[in-house]
Specification:
Blueprint (H helix, E strand, L loop, with lengths): L2 H13 L11 H8 L6 H4 L10 H4 L5 H18 L5 E5 L10 H6 L4 H13 L1 H14 L12 E4 L5 H11 L5 E5 L16 E4 L2 H10 L1 E6 L4 H15 L8 E4 L1 H7 L2 H6 L12 E3 L2 H14 L13
Parallel strand pairs: 1-2, 1-5, 2-3, 3-4, 5-6, 6-7
Length: 311
């Protein structure tokens, strides 16, 4: 081999060399190393802890903006990695029993007033099955060619209507999301939430943001303060143009018209008549799902709807 050919060969070999992806150790590597530092007064001080391993530091009042960012970022990363492109959000009471538990609620009443309330809750237990069936229909929606999923069921992760939604997706063999929150009383995620998509929040504001970031349809069932909060915030965001219109399905017209006088709000001039058009009233899961699919056939952005094949 001539000197010229040898040099050319060396250049070719050099061009195939691959440099390392990084030159600094990863945070995981340093975190493991920090666990094995010898104990001396300097290393035992909280000041010596790595900032991202120092829980007391992260919980300081000054670090609230960082905690906001972390609570926004963690679910976003997990949902992106799970290839979830859009969600079907379910709001509703945590107190409405499943139909097979409704009689037990009545039996537990200890006075006539409690019995009346229990009877009303039993009457609303039908919505457990409606939510369950609607979640099943949404979960049959076909994946995109790249594996992206649309109308993934998303609930607050708790009992009652939330459980029914996650249960419907579970029965279809599909993933579903639970957005739980730390409360003064213990609240466990319901057993139908996909474990890797079960999130816990400290901030209500960040939880509500994640409810809506991927939402492309929202079903609202009879509920209390929490349901009111979530529903009216969404209606306000659409009314003020902060959020693109999307199907809002309101179940339980008798209940809602008893506890909220929407027509009176129009008569009093605090909302416009067309603001009532933001709501679609429904009592039936199949009708509600048809409304959603028809809506996106007429409004093809931001999702492409493919009707689910029959069972």
């Amino acid at each position: 081999m001539t000197a010229q050919n040898f040099a050319a060969s060396r250049r070719c070999m050099t061009n195939k060399a691959v440099p390392p992806k990084r030159i600094f150790p990863s945070s995981q590597v340093d975190a493991r190393a920090a666990q094995h530092v010898p104990s001396v007064p300097q290393t035992d001080s909280p000041a010596y802890k790595l900032a991202f391993q120092d829980t007391e530091f992260l919980l300081r009042e000054d670090l609230r903006p960082v905690r906001f960012q972390l609570e926004l970022l963690k679910p976003e990363l997990f949902l992106t990695e799970a290839n979830i492109a859009s969600t079907f959000v379910f709001y509703g009471s945590a107190r409405i029993p499943a139909p097979d538990m409704a009689d037990a609620v009545i039996a537990a009443a200890t006075n006539p007033e409690q019995e009346k309330v229990a009877e009303r809750l039993k009457a609303k237990s039908k919505y457990y099955e409606v939510a369950r069936e609607l979640a099943r229909l949404a979960s049959r929606h076909a994946r995109e060619e790249d594996g992206a999923r649309h109308f993934v069921v998303c609930s607050g992760g708790g009992p009652s209507i939330m459980e029914a939604a996650n249960r419907g997706a579970f029965e279809e063999g599909q993933e579903s999301i639970g957005l739980n929150i730390v409360l003064p009383h213990e609240q466990m995620p319901n057993r139908y939430v996909t474990p890797d998509l079960s999130f816990q929040f400290h901030y209500f504001a960040l939880r509500k943001m994640h409810f809506l970031l991927r939402a492309r349809a929202v079903a609202v069932f009879p509920g209390g303060y929490g349901t009111f909060d979530e529903m009216f915030e969404l209606l306000t965001l659409i009314q003020t143009g902060k959020v693109r219109p999307l199907p809002i399905l309101l179940f339980g017209k008798d209940y809602w018209n008893r506890v909220v006088n929407f027509e009176a709000m129009v008569e009093e001039g605090v909302i416009a008549p067309h603001d009532l058009d933001l709501i679609h009233w429904s009592e039936d899961a199949a009708e509600a799902w048809d409304f959603v699919t028809n809506y996106y056939e007429d409004h093809p952005e931001p999702v492409r709807v493919q009707r689910a094949p029959p069972e």
